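Hello Y.,

Per our agreement to keep a running log of every chain we model this quarter, I'm adding this entry. I've kept the format consistent with earlier entries: sequence first, then predicted structure.
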Amino acid sequence: NSLERMHYVIRRENGSYSLGPRLLYLGKLYEQSFHLANIVQPELHALAAATGESASWYVIEEGQRLCLFRAESSEGLRETRLAGSSLPLDNSAIGQVLRHWGLH
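Predicted structure for the entry above:
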């Protein structure tokens, strides 16, 4: 099928399907299309360095919080999360902030 030929989807030997490497290219095109990374990423790195905590930039996407950018702390224990991760819009601090300010 055309999705397999374009490497958006890969069919494994056992017959199951998984996402293909071409999706990374689409993600990078999307990221570069609005140049927000040039502004947000340096600020997240500075915030992470100043606080010793990880810093993330989230948006609300289909009732979930979607991590668009992330800077990991270089100290202590940390929860590693990749940009592009989608998480519930729960009662965590960021969930509450997004529900209050992000839904208006």
